Amino acid sequence: QIYKIKIKNTYLYLKVDKKLKKELCYGDKVNLIATFNEANHKRNEGGFDYKNYLKSLKIYGTVKAEKIEIISHRKDDTLINKLTNKVKENVEKILPEKEAGLLNGLLIGDTEKIDDDIQESFKISSLTHVLAVSGMQVTYIITVIYAIFNKRLNKKIIGSISIFILVIYTAMTGFSPSIVRASIMEIIVIIAEMSYRKSDILNTIALSLIIMLIYNPFLITNVGLQLSYLGTIGIIIFYKPILEIFDNIKIKNKKWKYKINLQSKNFKK
User: Fold this and answer.
1) For residue range 5-31, what is the model confidence (pLDDT) as tens digits?
2) Distance (Å, whole) CA 22 – CA 53
């Protein structure tokens, strides 16, 4: 059966046949003749559930286009998308193609132009997670902001700037679960500091998870979100015992002993 329908505020995964030779950009308005397919649940016990995975991204099904007519280009393009494209363009102007693709992957999680050989090298080295945007990038952003403004502005103004930049950056990365988690936690800590209150790390983790699940309950099935929270909780649980082990290690070489003790004290601070 063929239906002519209008859908608003609904995300669909669009598959375009290469034979159509249509290059679509974010914000394009199009007319489609397409076949809608609802994603299947897992077929085997313990297998991958594609339908739940799409739900975690707020995608309700897949559409295979048989014919595409582009009505207008980038009419509804957003400020965030323009900013993201500007960052990518500037990186590509400054660096060679391979280095630009890698830097865009590290900055905003855009791995589309990373060379296959480079991705394979990261896999072999077990460093694929570095190419995925995570809490590491959020830490770098906050560190840079405080390094620039710490002695020039008061705590509340720096906090407000940090929150604004974190919100913009989170949107630029496509609201990746690990980035959203890290940003929410950092914003909670900043608000606590601005209010002259001490934040509790476990309460901060719990509150950030509640906020994310209110927005989309199916995110609980997202592996990236699970690993992000498990990794954070693991650091909280194990970092003190590990530091105690380093403190109790007897090192004869005074140079190495000084370096390890110094790093251990800085980490505790």
Assistant:
1) 566 667 777 877 766 667 777 777 777
2) 27
CB atoms within 10 A of CB 12: 16
CA distances from 168 to 81, 173, 206, 217, 246 (A): 11, 9, 23, 23, 39
- Tens-place pLDDT, residues 136-195: 788 888 888 988 888 788 888 998 999 999 999 888 888 888 888 889 999 999 998 888
**pLDDT band per the 50, 70, 90 thresholds, residue 202:** confident
DSSP state of 40: P
Run of H or E residues at 18: none
- DSSP-derived 3-state class of residue 159: helix
> Which uninterrupted H or E stretch holds 79?
helix 79-94
What end-to-end distance do the CA atoms of the chain give, in Å? Answer: 66
Tell me how far apart the alpha carbons of residues 145 and 140 are, in angstroms, rounded to a whole number: 9
Coil vs helix vs strand at 242 = helix
**Residue 262 in 3-state DSSP?**
helix
Q: Residue 172 and residue 180: Cα distance in Å, rounded?
A: 11
| Amino acid present at 191 | I
Confidence of residue 254 (pLDDT cuts 50, 70, 90): low
Distance separating alpha carbons of residues 183 and 266, to the nearest angstrom: 23
Sign of the alpha-carbon dihedral angle for 218, 223, 229, 233? positive
